[in-house]
UniProtKB/TrEMBL annotation, chains A, B:
Function: Catalyzes the cleavage of L-kynurenine (L-Kyn) and L-3-hydroxykynurenine (L-3OHKyn) into anthranilic acid (AA) and 3-hydroxyanthranilic acid (3-OHAA), respectively.
GO MF annotations in UniProt: kynureninase activity; pyridoxal phosphate binding
Metabolic or biological pathway, per its Swiss-Prot or TrEMBL entry: Cofactor biosynthesis; NAD(+) biosynthesis; quinolinate from L-kynurenine: step 2/3; Amino-acid degradation; L-kynurenine degradation; L-alanine and anthranilate from L-kynurenine: step 1/1
Protein's organism: Loktanella atrilutea
Hydrolase keyword on record: yes
Gene Ontology BP terms: anthranilate metabolic process; L-kynurenine catabolic process; L-tryptophan catabolic process to kynurenine; NAD+ biosynthetic process
Reactions this protein catalyses: 3-hydroxy-L-kynurenine + H2O = 3-hydroxyanthranilate + L-alanine + H(+); L-kynurenine + H2O = anthranilate + L-alanine + H(+)
EC numbers: 3.7.1.3
Keyword Transcription on entry: no
Subunit and partners: Homodimer.
Key words, A-Z: Hydrolase, Pyridine nucleotide biosynthesis, Pyridoxal phosphate
Names of the cofactor(s): pyridoxal 5'-phosphate
Annotated protein name in UniProt: Kynureninase
Length: 397, 397
């Protein structure tokens, strides 16, 4: 099965590396460096200001949004690329709270990525109307959705354990209770099939530098359900989301539809890298990607559990309850991960003790999995992680 | 004088073009395409996730901020690059209002760029505590700063006319009245010397794609006066501004100093283009740039007024009251600008009747000015602008 979706030839992978961190930063599609250099030289350099029209820079965030829409089960015209995921969370939550003005609770869970919680805290604090952020354990979300809840803000896949929420069920529970549902698809987009439109959720946000391989700091995206897109009130009223940005009116009038979720001038160079990177998805079935990912994960878990008894599975055992990464607990996980990286197997570490491995079938196959476990087993058997050099922590761990 | 700062060899300028729109989008420094391609291939492609430490991606926004600081009269450690100007305006104003909680008026002027006003409107609306945005004519700002004013938000140089505010005097007036001063340096940074620290203002923001030649959609920046940087409260509480982002705490704790103005994951590729672009400023004196810019503007105004009587100067005649662009009014300005662009002289148009020309002595000299006016005079004398093809308006005008 993995053979059918592996497209290693479309990626520029470093020699001697097995990359199990595409859930954090996706690999480089081989066509991107040339594309970006050409875009910079030919579009910025030669067209200069005319690039906004002639090279399609102005329309690019919507064009890229449409490409992403096709990968997350959303209709064309419902997704806009831009800014960072933090900003998109803020936009979605601010608009959601306007839709539910009589309620004061935002519900999230302890498996959410911290920036979502931080941005929510900052927003609620700014609004200053007694809103509170209720954070429960992931398993307790469904029962915590009550009539006080204005909005439910959840990341579908837990960044540490890979535990995956049931999007349809929780969206239904939110709607039954009169709450607005916001999904963060950071670890979902490009990892498996998503039926965003079918879920009925009001908003979704996500990033593109993980499974979508958009590059470091690639733009984020926001989805607004089409029937809400003309009334969702933007809190970040940037000129690019104005109904007529080049009329330079003194007063803000939101554009119709998803365009109102644009804020400032988009990062055209970075967006061009993303646009090119997304072309590796042409003709790829996410159902096939998902099947291949599950096969790689099952192989990895089986081999690790057979050969590395020092590690304990931290992810759900049932692949249906999981995204596309697998985590193991190990008390010396930080040092062990450094030793792994030193030998060319790149995963990452999340405090306090989680070794995290991402599975990206576009550029990984079963031979990579066996090769990675060979090295991991050797590091654990020889206790190579005891080397003092593996204890030193960098700025970004 | 212009000879001393002209560095055309550092730029990749299109053949046959005289570019008078560097106040909107700066020209391409010749080293950027190769630098970006190399960064993408070598850093993203080969280092992958390790680039955050090994290639210095994490530290890049502060490193770039320090480079910008040196060009705007700010100390190292007081400027952070990232996001868009709209977002940075929002951050600055939200923090300013927290510093002045008993006041309810934000003062700006009708010469401000619309997105600043829009972002302010959105913020005040969200806060919902009866704040209002008071917009007066640029000439009336000083007398409008009264004891109701919480914050004064001004763009130093008017994007249409080039009229320049007196930064020191207005900051002093704001402080005398107990208001927090925020300067938008969009048309200032890289155009002339700025003594930001000397002005005493609390916040400044700006963009880098104009005179700083950072490329389309290059990151913005924010300055916070150092004595305020540890207490300024961030409204956009992104994880990159957390005191310990990789501890993944559930609660937000702002980083010390300017780092708290970081929000989400920075656009590394776009930031790398900017970082390389800023190297053209090494060894350049902004006083020399300004003197050369004034010489070019004076030459342009004199030649246009002598040879193009159809046009009326819309900018202040005194160069001391002006930034680094010059505008003329002409009822058929839109069509005339299209005709100019068609003949290789690129300026831009701002409704209803403003033809705008930017002067960037790093890549313009006096021969360019005469060449541009030759063509402009011919277009006006022959009424070439009457051609119907010049009446068609693009998406971005």
């Amino acid at each position: 099965m993995t053979q059918s979706v592996t497209r290693k030839h479309l990626f520029d992978l470093p020699e001697g590396v097995i990359y199990l961190d595409g859930n954090s930063l996706g690999s480089l599609p081989a066509a991107v460096p040339g594309h970006v250099a050409g875009m910079v030289a030919d579009q910025w350099g030669q067209m200069l200001i005319k690039g906004w029209n002639d090279a399609g820079w102005f329309a690019q965030p919507g064009r890229v949004g449409d490409k992403i829409a096709g990968l997350i089960g959303a209709p064309a015209g419902s997704v806009m690329a831009g800014d960072t995921l933090s900003i998109k969370v803020y936009q979605a939550l601010a608009a959601a709270l306007r839709m539910n003005p009589d309620r004061r609770v935002v519900l999230s869970d302890s498996g959410n990525f911290p920036t979502d919680l931080y941005m929510a805290q900052g927003l609620l604090d700014l609004i200053g109307q007694g809103h509170s952020l209720r954070v429960v354990e992931p398993e307790a979300v469904a029962e915590a959705i009550d009539e006080e809840v204005a909005a439910v803000l959840l990341t579908q896949v837990d960044y540490r354990t890979g535990r995956r929420h049931d999007m349809t069920a929780l969206t239904g529970a939110a709607h039954d209770a009169g709450a607005v549902m916001i999904w963060d698809l950071a670890h979902s987009a490009g990892a498996f099939e998503i039926d965003l439109a079918g879920s009925g959720c009001a908003f979704a946000v996500g990033c593109t530098y993980k499974y979508l391989n958009g590059g470091p700091g690639a733009p984020a995206f926001i989805y607004v359900r089409p029937d809400l897109a003309d009334t969702a009130q933007p809190a970040l009223q940037g000129w690019m989301g104005h109904n007529a940005p080049f009329a330079f009116d003194m007063d803000y009038q939101p554009a119709g539809g998803i365009a109102r979720m644009r804020v400032g001038t988009p990062p055209v160079i970075q967006m061009s890298a993303l646009e090119q990177a997304l072309s590796v998805w042409d003709g790829v079935s996410l159902a096939d990607v998902r099947a291949a990912s599950v096969a790689l994960m099952e192989q990895f878990i089986a081999e690790v559990e057979a050969r590395c008894p020092q590690l304990t599975l931290a992810s759900p055992r049932d692949p249906e309850a999981r995204g596309s990464h697998v985590s193991f607990r190990f008390a010396e996980g930080y040092a062990a991960m450094q030793a792994l990286i030193d030998r060319g197997v790149i995963g990452d570490f999340r405090a306090p003790d989680i070794m995290r491995f991402g599975f990206t079938p576009l550029y990984l196959d079963d031979g990579d999995i066996t090769g990675a476990v060979d090295i991991l087993a050797d590091i654990l058997a020889t206790e190579a992680w005891r080397d003092p050099k593996y204890q030193v922590r960098g700025a970004v761990t």
